[in-house]
């Protein structure tokens, strides 16, 4: 039996993707997480002002995913975030057990 842990990840999507592009990216990563892990929650924070300019953009679309997976999956998810056009920042953290 594989050992699993709880994780959460926030990704910031470029507003240049447009409404349809943003939703397509959310669905793409939602499907990826569901295939490789147990997706617990998707929380769309929406459009927010960035603390500083990233690629000459001042706003981004924030999405939070809560999931449970084995230790190998977060590295693959991070790799996918980095190579995906439209994802300007991402962060994955392991949540502390209660």
Brief overview:
This protein has helices at residues 18-36, 73-83; strands at 5-14, 38-54, 57-69, 87-94.
Question: What can you see in these coordinates?
Answer:
The chain has 98 residues and is of the alpha+beta class. It has one domain (5-94): Alpha-Beta Plaits, CATH 3.30.70.60. It contains 2 helices and 4 strands. The protein has helices at 18-36, 73-83, and strands at residues 5-14, 38-54, 57-69, 87-94. It has a 4-stranded antiparallel sheet, with helices on one face. A hairpin with a 2-residue loop joins strand 2 (38-54) and strand 3. The longest helix is centred in the first third of the chain and has 19 residues, at 18-36. The two termini are 22 Å apart.
* pLDDT averaged residue by residue: 93
Tell the overall outline: globular
Class based on secondary structure composition and strand pairing: alpha+beta
Proportion of strand residues: over 45%
In terms of quaternary structure, what is this? single chain
Biggest beta sheet attributes: 4 strands, antiparallel
- In total, how many domains does the architecture comprise? 1
**What is the correct CATH architecture?**
2-Layer Sandwich
CATH topology (fold) name: Alpha-Beta Plaits
CATH superfamily: Ribosomal protein S6/Translation elongation factor EF1B
